[in-house]
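Field reference: sequence -> structure
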Amino acid sequence: ENVARIEVIRGPGSALYGADAYSGVINIITKSAADISGTEFGLRAGSFNTRDVWGLHGGKIGSVDVAGYLRVGSTDGFTGRVDSDAQSINDGASAHASLAPGSVSTGHDAVDGSVDLAYEKLRLRAGYRLRDHMGIGGGAGSALDPVGQARTERYNADLSWNDIELAPQWKLGLTASYFEYITSYPTPLRVYPAGSVVGGTLFPDGMLGAPNTWERQQRASAVVSYSGLAGHHMRFGIGQDDLNMYRTQEFKNFAFTPGLVLTDMAEVPVEDSFLIPRRRIVRYAYVQDEWNFARDWALTAGLRHDRYSDFGGTTNPRAALVWDASVDLTAKVLYGRAFRAPSFSERYSVNNPVLRGNPDLKPEIINTLETAFSWQARPDTQLQLSVFRYAMKDIIRTAGFPATRSNTGAQNGHGFELEATHDVRSNVRLVGNYAYQRSTDETSGEDAGYAPHHHVFGRADWGFASGLLLSGQVNYVADRDRAPGDTRPKVPDYTTVDLTVRTHRRTSNWDVAASVRNLFNADAREPSLYSPGHPTPVLIPNDLPLPGRSFYLQLTYRL
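Structure field:
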């Protein structure tokens, strides 16, 4: 309800965005005062005891544009069934401790709030997000945990000053931001349930842990653009990120001495906890040039260097050649390289019964080459086709027990995606896409697994003269191989269908929407992990369930 639009930039984007722009960038743009222009209240209720209320306001206070948003909600979460889990395997024939067959735990309470203030070229945004009483899904150790609960709090603020005229053809943009992220477990994780035996040690109340973290991120950047050279538009950027996990805290009822032993539930010294506080400074610089070197031809090239205080530097280029072949047809060839920096946990986690860090980890790297076509076949029909190849190296993978991370993976793949949009009439629109991909693990020469070879999505929107809009969508996921070494049958295909009917605001201030998701209650599942080298490499054999059929009703009132 507070999203204005969502932009998707496909392909590696580290040349502009740095870490984690690995295979694309998804930019979720929240509403400004102009997008809201008034006051709106809403409420929503539905399956799994889901309830939300919210308010939006957009307007002016003097010459300042003001937008505000507040939402409060909760859900019990869906209760998909897990027939067997890690503790089922530990139990063996005795089967005395596992809670499987049982349900995943996915409930939570939520509070979202934000404010957006704009004055001429200055913009200040701030927000708060709380997720409380969060369920642990399939369990921290892949053993069902209906007791453990997580809590996360996020505080964010950013101040930007854009389009500052430095000189003719020169402009400057400045941004500073602050982000704080707190994760805690008011009710400790039950890694393994009451009565479990782990490593030969009996845990009468279960194996319990609460790994709490406090992280603060401060960022500052400057971008200069220059358009004084004929046919060129250049951007130069510099910045620094201060990423500081300034506090960690752990409560647990076990210790390694060196074997696993039962202890009283208590806070452990920081040096004996799962993660010691860490700080990372990132400094970067980049340049990009958009060059219209001939009529209907444009070349965009960029290069960025990031230097991390804990593992060194990485340099990533990108290039895109665009040809406007005709009024209706555009062709592109794109190359990009991107990286994913190892997280604090991946590098520095210690004393963890499930996962261990590796301080020698390097970033994961991907190189992608793509050819894309966009064709306005008719005024009411648009087609897009993209064909791609990629190669990944230094993939961070885990092996053994407790699992230890290392840069041991390499993978390559290819595929294509075809998209179509067709306006049947002024009030009927059809949208669909088909994606095909095949990826190969270079070590084994086998399919890399997990991802579907075929993915089909279709959507239809039909607007009635009475002011109703009927929308339906179909999502088909098919042909998912297992990871190399995983001997389970392929992940089952699934098809889900969603339907929504809503009003168009015309004369009334009220809007109503009703929807059903997964209409036919398909047993949709995502593949559970396979961990080579682990004594039991498959901990949840029957995969992880997705929500079944669910219903929602939403009311919105605009002043």
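Note: The longest helix spans residues 86-91.
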